[in-house]
Amino acid sequence: MMEGTRVLSADMSARRKRAAKWLCIAIGLMLISMIVVSIVQTSGGKVTIRDLTWETTSGYQMNGLLFIPKGASAKNPLPAIVTSHGMYNNREMQDANYVELSRRGFVVLSMNMLSHGSSENVDNIGTLTTGMYEAVKMLASINFVDASRIGITGHSLGGMSSNVAISLDNAAPQRLISAVLLNCADATYADKDTKAYIDIYGSRNAGIVAAQYDEFFMRDVDANGNQTWPPEYIRNKNAQSFLHFGNDPTGLDKRAADTVYTEQVDGRSAMRVIYNPAIIHPWSHFSKRSTAATIDFFSRAFGAPAPIDPGNQVWQIKELFNLIGLIGFAVFLVNFAILMVFTPFFSALRSEEAVAPRPIDARGQLWFWGGLVACALFGIFTYLPILKGVNAFGLSRSPWAQTSPWGVGCWAAACGLFAILFMYIYKRANADRRLSAEETGIKLSSEKFWKTILLSIIVITVSYLCVFFADYFFKSDFRIWVLAVKAFDSSKLFVALFPYLELFLVYYVANSVAINCFNYNTIGLRNGKGGWINTAILAVFNAMPAIVLLLIQYAHYFGQGSLEWPAGNMFIVWLFPMLITLSVTAVISRKLYRVTRNPYLPGIINAILITLISCTNTLTWK
């Protein structure tokens, strides 16, 4: 009987039916996600969202989402706020702020920084940070915006860009910015030449969201010349000078956090405030307290057109359904791939029956646990040296356009090569008992090889069509905190093709072979049940480098008051999304292998997926 029309075993037939059922569920989850997210973002239809691209006065194109509350018009101009993400992020990272501020009647422009998202790429950090002021100038030109009430807020590098915008606004013939809130970024405290305390904010309302456990900012120097740590920030001179409107705080009264102070500056009443939530730097994207501070500040600065208590927040509903969509996306990807191998064309990639775990003896257990520990330790000890060595935190192209995926990709490839070396040693040491390459799926025919590549591309393409559908019709995507599967422009696809895809292919193909061809065994299996335990163990060990490095960094930080690796802190922060991606890709790999006995299919799918996620959510230098 021809392979494409072979009779299915009862077990494989059941798997096809389950895959069809879960595919329908996944589509339902994604649709529900899109609809609810759209309802929340538009305040039930009271806010219109426009995806804008405009030409800046510096000759670069910028992109952002513009939120227009109902009733905004030339006859009824509303106060407007520009929100900015930080370095290596994108406009959607400001979702808590743009949902809540537009809900309260503010026009909101959530910008993509230059070299981020769909904004044009530039070649230096100086040009990049001018984007905030370009966004302000664009807003001021819109007739339904009250140009006398324009505010700005930015997280991290977005806050630094806000300071640049203030400096540019100070030098302009007519000032456009009336209020500025820096989020997890320091103010300009002193003159760069004289070192004397200074107030560049003048008659504007100005505030800071100073995370108590910020890993990057909120530090000062004490009387002994020692660096202070962020929980002490509010008591130190920089913060006190800011709250005293740029005066030297020596001998002045101590001012407190979360308290608004006002003075007359140039004939206008101006306020200064420092909000001090007990959060870390990246959590400010996802914090109710940080969002409440933003609402409170701009409501005080301009008066909210539709006043709602700052504690009344709905963005968490959006985040929940973004997560539901993300889960639906992963479920869709797996089950679409499974169903495709039941089609006649791709049936050669299907196993005759579901792949079962292999029995393992005491010697095999030693190799199993030893391999997991060895690979985890290799990942832990090489992560920081490799990322530092390849200049993964670069302020220009070095040597590639995206420094973050370059660094992480180099580390991933090194881990993949180490896994290959370990598997080779294992095979040499167990030559008398190993399974054949054909039996485990390591060796493929030429037909299966090219069909594996083709199917991997089809699975990713169709899965991402769901993402582009969500973006086009609902202006939503699938995300949770710092992990996002989002739509992108064609330039990001070309960037991703080389060298990032090749680096991630080395890791994810090797990882899939290790997970499925060497480590799929009966550990945890009792009476034919519990096979998921093996998968769970592998998923945890996949993420072990991220788990261990984050635990060490933050245990030392909260326990000792200093970071274990201050010079590599940016690299440690990049590990947060890997907690999910490294573990979930192990599960995806196992799910597909059980139906196909083909480790390369999930390996290639995971590599393409992670490359796209990495390269569409980061900074791209020109």
Number of DSSP E strands: 11
Spatial strand arrangement across the major sheet: 1-2-4-3-5-6-7-9-8
- What distance separates the N and C termini? 56 Å
Biggest pleated sheet: 9 strands, mixed
Order of helices and strands: HEEEHEHHEHEEHEEHHHHHHEEHHHHHHH
Tally of separate domains: 2
Features:
Rossmann fold, two-stranded antiparallel sheet, 2 domains, globular, 622 residues, 19 helices, nine-stranded mixed β-sheet, disordered N terminus, alpha/beta
Topology:
Blueprint: H1 10-41, E1 47-55, E2 61-69, E3 78-84, H2 95-103, E4 107-112, H3 125-128, H4 131-140, E5 145-155, H5 157-171, E6 179-183, E7 205-209, H6 237-243, E8 261-265, E9 268-275, H7 288-302, H8 315-340, H9 362-389, H10 403-429, H11 437-440, H12 446-474, E10 478-480, E11 483-485, H13 490-497, H14 500-518, H15 532-542, H16 544-560, H17 569-573, H18 575-596, H19 600-615
Parallel strand pairs: 3-4, 3-5, 5-6, 6-7, 7-9
Antiparallel strand pairs: 1-2, 2-4, 8-9, 10-11
Helix pairs in contact: 1-8, 2-7, 4-5, 8-12, 8-18, 9-10, 9-16, 10-14, 12-19, 14-18, 14-19, 15-18, 16-18, 18-19
